[in-house]
Structure formats: C-alpha cells, structure tokens
Amino acid sequence: MFYIGITVAVKTFQEDAKIDLVKWEADVLNRFDHPGLPLLFGASLEEKPYRLVLQFHGIDGKCVTFKGAVESMLQVDWVRICKEAADALDFMHKKGFLHNDLKGDNVLLSNDNNAIHPVIIDFGKCRSITNPKRYSLRAKEQRKYSKYHRHIAPELIEGTHPQSCESDIYSYGYLLTQITRSITKNHTVLDNISIACVRRNPLKRPTLSDIILKLK
Ligand SMILES: Nc1ncnc2c1ncn2[C@@H]1O[C@H](COP(=O)(O)OP(=O)(O)O)[C@@H](O)[C@H]1O
Ligand SMILES: [Mg+2]
C-alpha cells in the first residue's frame, strides 16, 4: 500500500485488541527516530479493527523476516546486521523501553541505500524500563514457555526476575544462535557473543555496548 508515494505496511489488530494497548504501541513508536526502528505514519482508532500505518521494510517489495532469511540461508553481511540490530535495541533501551519479544519474526531485513539493514518491529509487549512485568507462571506453563518461546529469558519464565535490559539481551543472543548454528558457522566473534548473551545468570551477560564494540 502507498501513502504520499511511500510504501507502507498496515498492522491490523484483532477485533478483541484493547485500544489502550494499540495507543501504547503507537506512542512508543512515536518516540523513535532510528534507522533500525520503523517510522509510524498514523493510527486508525475510530473503529475496529484498529490499525497502525508504518513505513514498509522489505527487500524488493517483499517482507523478509530475520527468521525467513536464516531459513533460506540468505547470504548477507550478518556480522554488520547483528551489530546494527544491537544498535537499534540499545537505542530503545536508552529511550527507556524494553522490547520483550525480540525474535526472528520481529526483526525484518530492509534494502535501504543499497545495503540490507535490520529493522526491529512489533512493540506489542514493549514496556517502560521502569515498569517491567514479572511473570508468575505455573509449572506447566513454564514448561510450555521453555519449549515454544525459547527466546524468552529463563529468569522471566521462572519468575525470579522481572523483564530487564538483560532479558532483552538474552533474546538478542538467542536470535544470534539461529545464525551461528546455520549460516556463519565457526565465526568466533558471533559464536562468543551469542553464547555469552544466553548465559543463565543475567548479570553475566554482556551489555549492548560491549556487543557493539566487539562487532565493529
Ligand atoms: N514495517 C513493516 N514493514 C513490513 N512488514 C511488516 C512491518 N510491520 C509488520 N510487518 C509484517 O507483519 C507481521 C506482523 O507484524 P507484528 O508487528 O510482528 O505483529 P504481531 O503482533 O501480529 O506479531 C510481521 O512479521 C511482518 O511480516
Ligand atoms: Mg510479531
């Protein structure tokens, strides 16, 4: 779809979506101004389904998720892409927000200025750093999360810690393991970062500044 000559993506919410959550997502997006995060053009909140109109990010007009790119073994400069994704996440954290759902479906690849760049999307689970959520899951739900939501840090699933920059860094590390396992095999720097980010102890994980420096 086009809006003033720009290709846009329309995010349509389910009928039961709460207006406050849609407004929150729009409000968060409005505060961003970074090449690794989408621009919000507008929101349609007068009637259901609610919609957000975002800058479209893709390659040759097609939407390419990080997950899809890994599965199709897309040959791109993965080290630079991982550095840029860390940069976008760092920007969010510095603005005071946690993403809380960083995974292969929620990072797009975009062909801008003759190079492929990552764009982090989906701020539906985003929270202010000062208002993180603490999960309280029963044993059965914990097992389900550990199996099907592997990008979520163990301390969140177990309920020992609330969401944090460190739990986002865990998800970032899990994203990296998907590349190091299949595409960039034996890339020592990426291997070391991904392993360090998914350490069980959140305090033993590297910071995004450490990661960005190592990927320079
Ligand atoms: N800015 C965008 N440009 C291109 N495609 C997008 C954009 N935003 C979302 N999409 C597509 O829509 C899908 C769902 O968007 P997302 O924000 O992740 O919503 P959901 O909460 O349904 O997961 C994404 O995986 C992607 O394929
Ligand atoms: Mg999503």
TrEMBL record:
Keywords: ATP-binding, Kinase, Nucleotide-binding, Transferase. The keyword Phosphoprotein does not apply. GO terms for molecular function: ATP binding; protein serine/threonine kinase activity. SUPFAM superfamilies: Protein kinase-like (PK-like) (SSF56112). It holds the Pfam family PK_Tyr_Ser-Thr. InterPro entries: Kinase-like_dom_sf, Prot_kinase_dom, Ser-Thr/Tyr_kinase_cat_dom, Ser/Thr_kinase_AS, Ser/Thr_Kinases-Pseudokinases. The keyword Nucleotide-binding applies. PANTHER family: MITOGEN-ACTIVATED PROTEIN KINASE KINASE KINASE 20, SERINE/THREONINE-PROTEIN KINASE TNNI3K-RELATED. This is Serine threonine- kinase. It comes from Paramuricea clavata.
